[in-house]
Design a protein that fits this description.
The protein is built from 18 helices and no strands. It has about 450 residues and is mainly α. The longest helix is centred in the N-terminal third of the chain and has 37 residues.
Length: about 450
């Protein structure tokens, strides 16, 4: 049995906890390293001053939007590919992967050119103050131009995960991050390039990640192949990709908008407020990336067993995942809340930054225990092809609930309105998730009698 057959057999037969750990652990490690890079990156830039930290905070939501383009095609394709592999339709899986890759490359290039053409206006709309703008311009010009690599890397990451190839995702992300951490202090301080050095280091590191992914998909180890020959303008493929990908793009757009609105609201209270909220975003990225990484391991397993009509295994995967992620989020929230002041002090010695940042960390920790619950159900809905429910949950936290709160609350509560906006949005998102989860559980219970299918309906290697 070759390596690819073993992946399929693993998803079809192995014990659920073992599969989840095997699929998710490499992705978690890779994403955790990436999140830690974002934190250490802020520490390096932080030595250049509060306005420099603010500049990186302004660029962050723009990068989230661009990553959203990769998620649109990558996650959209991933959900479909997992089900195709469960049905053993390899040709359609290859066409889907190739179409997703080349579409993200072309559309990403066009969007980046548009953003760079109106860069100052974009930066100001995302909350850049007059003192932050020069730093933001220097950083973003290079960083955004190189983001085409981030877009295709995210696309390939999701495609690799769809076939259970989590190790290449871990390897590619860790290699790029380590190179970034080596180059960043060298470019910023030794070469004296300042904040531009941080952006250049990021682009060089992303180039390494791209090379490793392409080497994998063009080699013999990948089950799914990405080639220009497999690229097709196929209605079914684009429909399957976009019905899952569009809600994720909307989510990323709303996430980007919510970060921009947070920066804009915080800018009314000075550069320290912008810097503080940017630090908070990076700190919580550490724990949210772990949960996202886990969900990337959960989603192909859920999609495969749904496609193969193995409903009991699907239910077990959901149960285990909810239990594990809830414990993780609860412990993480407790630690962040208790050590909030010390955490912010690692990034800045500005007393105002520390005061605002520590209050925001504590506020965001209060309801964070429910984040795993939200994320697993988003992934489950998408794995089942239920784009409507998955999309609604995706846009709830950072869109439907957060945007109205961040627009209204600061005018009533001042800086406290900025600090507590995410807490209120998370509470409302949790309530929505409960409602949708109850309905889905009832539907899944009705599938139980259908688990005994004739053997010829699906083949196990």
């Amino acid at each position: 049995m070759n390596e690819n057959d073993q992946k399929i057999k693993l998803m079809a037969e192995e014990k659920i906890p073992k599969v989840l750990l095997q699929f998710s652990a490499p992705v978690i490690i890779g994403m955790l390293v990436t999140a830690l890079y974002n934190v250490i990156d802020a520490m390096f830039v932080g030595k250049l001053g509060t306005s420099a930290i603010g500049a990186v905070s302004i660029a962050f939501p723009i990068s989230m939007f661009l990553i959203g383009l990769g998620l649109t095609f990558g996650s959209g394709a991933s959900s479909y590919i997992s089900r195709l592999l469960g049905q053993e339709d390899i040709l359609q899986a290859n066409r889907t992967a190739s179409t997703a890759f080349f579409s993200s490359l072309g559309i990403g290039t066009i969007i980046i050119i548009i953003i760079l053409s109106f860069l100052d206006k974009v930066l100001l709309s995302f909350g850049a103050t007059p003192t932050i703008l020069p730093y933001a311009r220097d950083f973003s010009t290079i960083f955004i131009a190189g983001s085409i690599l981030s877009i295709i890397n995210v696309t390939m990451n999701n495609i690799a995960i769809s076939e259970g190839a989590a190790k290449i995702s871990m390897t590619a992300m860790i290699a790029g991050t380590i190179l970034n951490l080596i180059l960043e202090p060298l470019f910023i301080y030794t070469f004296g390039w300042g904040i531009k050095g941080a952006a250049i280091a990021n682009v060089v590191a992303q180039s390494l990640t791209t090379f490793l992914y392409l080497q994998y998909f063009w080699g013999k180890k990948s089950y799914v192949k990405i080639t220009i020959q497999h690229f097709v303008f196929n209605k079914e493929i684009f429909s399957q990709i976009l019905k899952v990908g569009i809600p994720l793009l909307i989510y990323q757009l709303l996430t980007s908008a919510s970060m921009g609105l947070t920066n804009k609201a915080a800018s009314n209270f000075g550069d320290p407020a912008v810097a503080a909220m940017g630090i908070v975003t990076r700190v919580f990225a550490i724990v949210t990336y772990v949960v996202f990484g886990y969900s990337k391991g959960f989603q192909p397993l859920a999609g495969f067993n749904y496609g193969a009509k193995k409903i009991d295994r699907l239910k077990e995967a959901v149960s285990v995942s909810l239990r594990w992620t809830t414990w993780f989020c609860g412990i993480s929230a407790l630690l962040i809340g208790v050590f909030a002041h010390l955490i912010i002090a690692l990034f800045s010695n500005d007393s105002v930054v520390i005061h605002i940042g520590s209050k925001a960390l504590i506020a965001n920790s209060i309801i964070f225990i429910s984040f795993g619950f939200q994320t697993i159900y988003i992934s489950l809905f998408l794995a089942l092809g239920k784009a409507k429910e998955g999309g609604l949950l995706s846009i709830g936290r950072q869109g439907i609930f957060f945007i109205p709160v961040i627009l209204i609350l600061p005018s009533i509560m001042g800086i406290s309105g900025v600090i507590y906006a995410q807490l209120i949005a998370d509470l409302l998102t949790t309530l929505l998730t409960v409602i949708l989860a109850v309905n889905l559980k009832k539907e899944m219970n009705s599938w139980a009698p259908k688990t005994a299918y004739p053997a010829e309906l699906f083949h196990e290697n």
